[in-house]
Amino acid sequence: MPGFELFGDRERKEVMDVLETGVLFRYGFDNVRKGNWKAETFERRLCEITGIKHAHLCSSGTAALSIALASCGIGAGDEVIVPPFTFVATFEAVLNAGAVPVFSEIDETLCLDPGRLKDVLTDKTRAIIPVHMCGAMADIPAIKKFCRDHGLILIEDACQSLGASFNGRYLGTFGDMGCFSFDAVKTITCGEGGAVITDSTSLYNRADQYADHGHDHLGGADRGADDHPIIGANYRISELNAAVGVAQLSRLQEIIDIQRRNKERLKSALAQFKEVDFRRLPDPRGDSATFLSFFLPDGSMARHIAPELAKQGVDGCFYWYDNNWHYFRKWHHLKTMKTAAALPIQKMGEGSGSPAYDYSTVSLPISDSIMERTVSIQIKLSWTEDDIKKRVEAINRVFGLFNKQTTGR
Ligand SMILES: Cc1ncc(COP(=O)(O)O)c(C=O)c1O
Q1: Per-residue pLDDT tens for 288-303?
Q2: How far is CA 186 from the centre of its chain?
Q3: Who lines ligand 1 at CB under 6 A?
Q4: 80: which strand partners?
Q5: Are β-strands 153-157 and 177-181 bridged in parallel, bridged antiparallel, or unpaired?
Q6: Which atom of ligand 1 is the closest one to the Cα of 86?
Q7: Residues 195 and 248 sit within 8 Å (Cβ to Cβ)
Q8: Local structure of 253: helix, strand or coil
Q9: DSSP state letters, 288-338
Q10: Helix or strand run (H / E) with residue 202
Q11: DSSP codes joined into one string, 132-179
Q12: Cα-only R_g, the chain
């Protein structure tokens, strides 16, 4: 998963270009930047790679989600369907837009189940944010069709899935807008960074303006001459972060090739055990292979096996069901609405005596039954042949031991 593992001369060279001019700002300073436009270069290359028309680089994946929501006109009172298995940033962005995250069940893709979306559809639903978790795809054609049939906006959270595709088309390019993260642990990293992509020129213009205090960027070298068609925010990226990203983006295919090779080795080792069922991938060829996710027969086995694998040397082993950050079950701060300042959602129930949206009563039995059986192993780029062999041996030991204990042999 982490691009930081392949970090070296290319990154240093791009950063030095910026440091030599001292221009750390992505806009203006035309006469002194010696032709260095790292954020723009990154955006152009991301468009070339994904085949999309427009990309806007910003300060984080969370910023990308906020920019996408604002650009699509989603705000106070709108309901946005999201999955319960994601990083907290997805629902935070919806709440901070003044909108209401509505959780819908996942399926064995570990992403939103398109067949269940109708269960949470209301006359307030405006958008769906499927999250392509752990490097691979949701059933995106079915989700897109649901959006089309019900007149909903589709924003893809592809923060964990840069370079993954479905039927040869990159994730992030199916929706009205797609979002990526380039934080410290993502497929490629800028240190901190994110991007929104879209084929719509009007959505792109909104994104470009919203992310920079509403600047229309039509004033030429003089930023003061820009007009402000909308009220915006500051989600800008610095040229230093963008420079790292330009170098990292040039390594994307190499990163994915290594991940796919390494994942295949561990997958073959696990496939021998009858207890193991793998995550369903709607298009296995498009998996960016950042994680190997599998299901065990029940929660108690998964809860036992995950730490045991870690103890035996399979590092980066995740049991999401007990994890504070990636699954609804442990989001106590959301269930009790612990916020720094009142959000529009907290005002919605005012006067009625009870909150309009009470996450403490949300029940997701299907997602629970999937997540309690799920274990994921993070795939690293830096593994040597020896590292892989050791992990395969550890898998054999842990499952062998488990079988012995349960069969008494
Ligand atoms: C699914 C998902 N969405 C959004 C984000 C937010 O990205 P960032 O950390 O760049 O704000 C993350 C980061 O972990 C993520 O995994």
Answers
A1: 999 999 999 999 999 9
A2: 9
A3: 60-62, 86-87, 89-90, 131, 157, 159-160, 181, 183, 194
A4: 101, 127
A5: parallel
A6: 1
A7: no
A8: helix
A9: --SEEEEE-SSHHHHHHHHHHHHHTT--SEE-GGG-TTTBGGG-HHHHTT-
A10: helix 201-210
A11: -GGGS---HHHHHHHHHHHT-EEEEE-TT-TT-EETTEETTSSSSEEE
A12: 22
If one counts every other C-beta atom within 10 angstroms of the C-beta of residue 2, the result is 21
Cα–Cα distance for residue pair 40/43, rounded to 1 Å: 5
DSSP-based three-state secondary structure for 248 = helix
Q: All domains of the chain, ordered by start, with CATH?
A: 3-251 (3.40.640.10), 253-325+366-407 (3.90.1150.10)
Confidence grade of residue 404 (pLDDT, cut at 50, 70, 90) = low
Tell me which residues are annotated as active site. 186
Neighbouring-strand partners of residue 323:
none
User: pTM (2 decimals)?
Assistant: 0.97
Length of the chain, please?
Answer: 409
Beta strands in 76-193 (DSSP E): 79-82, 100-103, 125-128, 153-157, 165-166, 169-170, 177-181
Q: How far is the CA of 87 from the centre of ligand 1 (A)?
A: 6
Q: Is 311 exposed, middle or buried (0-12, 13-18, 19+ CB in 10 A)?
A: exposed
Ligand 1 atom nearest the C-alpha of 133 is 1
Of 143, 388, 367, nearest to 264 (Cα)? 388
Tokens for 23, please give them.
């221009």
Q: How does pLDDT run across 101-145, given as a tens digit for each residue?
A: 999 999 999 999 999 999 999 999 999 999 999 999 999 999 999
For the record, the structure tokens of 142 come out as 């079915």
C-alpha 20 – ligand 1 centre gap (Å): 31
Token pair 């696990």: residue = 270
Instruction: List the Cα angle 372/332/193 in 5-degree steps.
Output: 85
Picking from 103, 102, 97, the residue whose alpha carbon sits closest to that of residue 76 is 97
Q: In whole angstroms, what is the distance from residue 238 CA to residue 190 CA?
A: 10
Among 318, 179, 195, 316, which residue's Cα sits nearest to residue 248? 195
8 Å CB contact between 225 and 217 = no
Mutation pick for ligand 1 pocket among 4, 58, 62, 318 (CB with most ligand atoms within 8 Å):
62
Contact 87, 65 (CB under 8 A): no
Tokens linked to 109: 């893709």
